[in-house]
Structures are given as C-alpha cells and as structure tokens.
Amino acid sequence: MLVRESFLWWIAAIYLFAFTSFYLQIPGLYGKNGIIPVDNQLDLKNGNEKSIPKKFSSTPTLLWFMGDYGLDAEQSLELLSIVGMLLAWFAMITPRVRNAATFLALWIFYLSIFKVGTIFLWFQWDILLLETGFLAIFVAPFALIRSRKIEPQAHDNLTMWLIKWLLFRLMFASGVVKLTSECPTWWKLTALTIHYESQCIPTPLAWYAHQLPVWFQKFSVVMTYVIEIALPFLFFSPIRSLRLISFYGQLLLQILIILTGNYNFFNLLTIGLCISLLDENYLAKWFSVDKEPTDKGTGALPTGVQRFIGWIKWLLTAWAMLMLCYWVQRLFTVRFMEGNQPITCKIAFTKASFNSALVSAMPITVWIGSISLLAEILTTIKNSIIAPNNVGQKFFTTLKSSVYIIAAIVLFCISLNTHCVLDPKLQKSLSPVIKKWYDDSKSLEISNPYGLFRSMTGVGGRPEVVIEGSDNLNSGWKKYEFYYKPGNVRRSPPAITPHQPRLDWQMWFLALGSYDQNPWFKSFLHRLLTNQKEVVELLQYNPFPDKPPKYIRSKLYHYHYTRYNFARGYAGLVLL
Predict the structure, then answer these.
(1) CB–CB of 519/215 below 8 Å?
(2) d(CA 162, CA 132)
(3) SS3 of 575, please?
(4) SS3 breakdown of the chain: % helix, strand, coil, rounded to 5?
(5) Beta-ladder partners of 465
(6) CB of 528 within 8 A of CB of 548?
(7) Which of 45, 48, 47, 120 is closest to 77 using CA atoms?
(8) Residue 144 — very low, low, confident or very high, per pLDDT cuts 50/70/90?
(9) Which of 249, 260, 17, 234 is nearest to 125 (CA)?
C-alpha cells in the first residue's frame, strides 16, 4: 500500500512537471505563428465527421474532437496541458484523487499531446512517461472517488511487478546498447571523458566532473555497466537485501546523472520506477509508520528458525556480491595501485564474445520475467481468496483480480516484442499472436524499446550551432542567445531539471546532423527573420528587438571545456 501510494504520488508529480514545461512552450513551438503550427499537421479544415474516426485510429489524439467546441489546435493543446496540470496537482495533494480514472485521463491527455508533438516530443522520456502512465492506470485503485481510508488491493504486488519489469527493460537495454553499438568510446571505457562536455545541456557540476582523472572516468564506465546490466537481474531476487542493493545502485546512478546533466524529468521518472523494488516494511521505516510483518509465514516460525533463515539470506547476499566483484574484475581487468594509477581497467572480452553472451542471456531474461510474473499471479490468487471475510467479497475480489491477471499477462507479452529487439532472432521466434497484439496497440505507445546513450557524440569537440543576424552581409553580425544551451562562453551552464526546453534540445541534435535533415530549422529561421513574438520569446536575447534583420545565418563551432588550471576555477566552455 505504501509502495503503491508512493509510486502514484511520484508519477503524478512527473505529470505535473511534464505538462507545465510543455504548456510554457506551446505558442512558440506549435502556435499559429510557431515553428511547427499544429493546425497544419491535423488539417482539421479539410476533414469531415466521417473521416475523423479513421484519422483517430492512426493518430489517437483528442484534438480531432475539440474543434466541435470552438477550440483550435493550439487552444486545445493549452487546455489539455492546463487540465493535466490540475489533475496531477490534485493527485499529489490528496490520495482520494489518485485513482485509475485520474491516471487514465492524464495518460490520454499526454498521449494526445505526444501524437501531434512531432520532433519536439520524440524523446525516450516522453514515451517512457506514456508507458509508465499507462501502467499506473492498473496500479491505481479502480474507483471514481476513493474512500478516505486507503485499502490495499489483492493485486497490488502484481501491478507493481509490471513497473519493475519496465524498469528492468529500461536499464538492461540501456547498458547493452552501449556495447552492441560498437562505439569505440564505450569499448575503450573513455565515454565519460567526453560525455560531460558533449551532452545536450550540462549542469554547473558537469564541468567539475569533466576535470576528474581519466582512471576515475574509466572506472565509472565500468560501474555504469554493472549498474545497468548486472544489477537489474537482482530486481527479481526473493532476497530483500539483494533487491535493496539493486535499488540503491540505480538511485545512485540517477542522482549522479541529475547532478551532472539536465535531462528534465527523465531521471526523476526512473527513480519513480525504482520504487517498485521496495517493500511495505522498508517504506514504513522511511515514513515512520507502524507496519505489520508482511511475511506471516516467517513470522510464525520459532525465533531460532527465523535467525537461521536470516543467516542463510545473509550468506547468499555475501556470495552474490563476491561473485559480482569476481566477474567485474575478470571481465574488466580491474587492478588497484598498478603503476602510478590508483585503478586501471580495460574490457577483457571481445565484441563477438559479448554478442554471443547476449544471445544466450536474452532467453534467460524472458524466463526470469515469466517465472517472476507467475509467482506474482499465484500470490494475487492467494490474496484474493484469503483477504475478504465473506463469500460475496471473495467472489468479487477474485473476479477483479482475474481481470488484472489477464491484463498483466497481455502487457507482459506485448512488452516482449520491444524487449527482444536486443536479439532479432529471438524476436522473430515470438508467437504471431504476441506480434499482432503489439502491432494493434503500437499507436497507443504502451510498450517501446529503450537504449540510452547508444553512442557518444562530440568526440572531436562539442558541435554547437550559433545563429547570427545582420543588416549587412559584410559586417555587423549579432548573435541570438538561447536560455539554456551553450552559446555565450562567459556564462556558466544552468541547472534546469525538471524543465525541458525542447527547442534547445533540438538545437543539440541539429548540430549532430545537417539542416536538410531538420526542416523545422528553416521554419525557425524564417520566424526569426520576421521577429515572430511567440518564437523569439523562446530565446533569452534577441539582438534585433525593434526591427528584424535582413539576413540570418547559422555557423557550426566546436566547444571544449576549459581546464581548471587554465580557467582558474571558472566553470565554462571555450569556443575554438
């Protein structure tokens, strides 16, 4: 119950961050005079009542129907965002609103926004929020208005297991793709020597992290592999101490990312998923709540037997940690105090051997998930039978639990299609029924593949696009300044989590490609040439506030962090 309520509160907070951040940027990004007017995408004027349902099936968004109420597409986006913000806020402040109906509405609103958001919403955290939000509908109590008393449900552990499975897929895939991409920096363990200055929007602490010695950066990459690939297998351990170790490992990684990079609500959302690794008694200690032992079978045993079982669990935990250290040392050749380096390490396996191990490991992950799900299903059935006091309640609770069990099985099967993208051969071997379920639900974004930092960019310096305007082609070029992305080398990087400035993010992707691959950029420059108020407000400084420039250009530079002895402690970027 505490686990469920903590998770739902956290997801409500993430929804509040996401809707608020998006709302502030609607006019400049999607308004009639914005970079990508949403009216042009939906083409409501050329539609008719018969074609709307057909369009909705391919692009499920409430915007198709809001024109009937006199709202244009921009106003519809604003209304959905405002209502989403209010619902999320009420869900945070009162448990009575944290029900399935509320989270269904939040999910529908965000899906409606996502489906018309195009390139400015095509981020992994947006699809992760949609998938998490969809699962939250099942986690939340099924009631329009909840009673004041918060009651546990027989299926609570089952629905929280779906969250745990999503967390496993997210972390395991994020670790694996770093190696399957064959990016040299990940294989040489040098990725973090580049990451802090090449990421989209660094924080002030990112400069300090960049100054850390190379041996520490390499060892940090090794620990990233351990946390993302090895520790997720402990998510399903029956031993509580191993689950807690995996929880704190994930928590540590997410906090460090938040401190050194501005990834909006992404890492906060991942922390929310990690709540599924905790149990009622552990959270009760956090909140200083008296809680009855959940393991009644163990509590009924004699003290000596309980102590013996505790020792066995302690020994198994110690053995698991020793084995983990052994394999880390063996696979990454970790050496302490060798030469003049406190720690040295390098990958001791080949790309071929890793791919072979991955092919062997993928079916194991599916089996672990299946067996763990079966255990939760049996627990749900047991809780449904023993919890109620009378036959009528037993029947109703069992019937309700059966619906959740069927839903959990279907959602797990659908997720296998996206989980198995790591092994195409295994993906092809999935049942045609599973593939059909996935294809039929694909437009709802309820299951997606993940993989963070697949390859490291900015190896030769951070590419950065700088926009300049002028009234004279030969001189007088003045720079436009963005609020958050690196530009002015005399300005320290900002800390803006959980806000996501979507234009600043796309400018980072633009620098990695070309303007031909980013048609939105031409529209953006056109808006600057006309001094369009809604778009200019997305920028911190407009050098032509009274009259737009006659000419505009973009130049590609490469940025590098200053070194400490050069900058005398100044945390910034140097333009080369």
Answers:
(1) no
(2) 9
(3) strand
(4) 65, 5, 30
(5) 556
(6) yes
(7) 120
(8) low
(9) 17
Buried b (16+ CB within 10 A) or exposed e, 371-383: ebbeebbebbbeb
Q: Per residue in 88-117, pLDDT tens?
A: 999 999 988 999 999 999 999 999 999 999
Please, are residues 67 and 38 in contact by the beta-carbon 8 Å criterion?
Answer: no
Task: List, in sequence order, every beta strand (DSSP E) within 341-420.
Answer: 341-344
Residue 499 is given by DSSP the state -
Residues in Cβ contact with 42 at an 8 Å cutoff, skipping those fewer than 6 apart? 61, 63, 64, 73, 116
- The pair of structure tokens assigned to 479 is 């720079």
Q: Where are the domains of the chain?
A: 1-151, 462-575
Average pLDDT score over the chain: 90
532 has a pLDDT exceeding 50:
yes
pLDDT tens across 253-289, in order?
Answer: 999 999 999 999 999 999 999 999 999 988 888 877 7
For tokens 């990451």, what's the residue?
A: 195
- Cis (ω within 30 of 0) for the bond into 498? yes
Element (H, E) at 464: strand 462-470
Q: What percent of the chain has pLDDT over 90?
A: 73
Task: Give the model confidence (pLDDT) of 374-385 as tens digits.
Answer: 999 999 999 888
Q: Which amino acid would we find at residue 143?
A: A
Question: What is the tens place of the pLDDT at every residue in 167-191?
Answer: 999 999 999 999 999 999 999 999 9
Of 78, 45, 85, 86, give the one whose Cα is nearest residue 64.
Answer: 45
pLDDT, tens digit, for every residue of 343-399? Answer: 999 999 999 999 999 999 999 999 999 999 999 999 999 988 886 667 777 888 888
Q: Which two tokens stand for residue 291?
A: 């809680």
Do residues 92 and 110 lie in contact, with contact meaning Cβ atoms separated by under 8 Å? no
Give the residue among 35, 19, 196, 200 at the shortest CA–CA distance from 92.
19
At 336, is the secondary structure helix, strand, or coil? strand
The two tokens of residue 507 are 């400018």
Helix (H, G, I), strand (E, B) or coil at 466: strand
Q: What DSSP state is assigned to residue 31?
A: S
Query: Tokens standing for 299?
Result: 């509590």
Judge whether residue 409 has pLDDT over 50. yes
- Calculate helix-pair angle for 2-30, 156-180, nearest 10 degrees: 50
Closest CA to 226 of 202, 201, 203, 253: 253
User: Which among 494, 498, 453 has a CA at the least distance from the CA of 124?
Assistant: 453
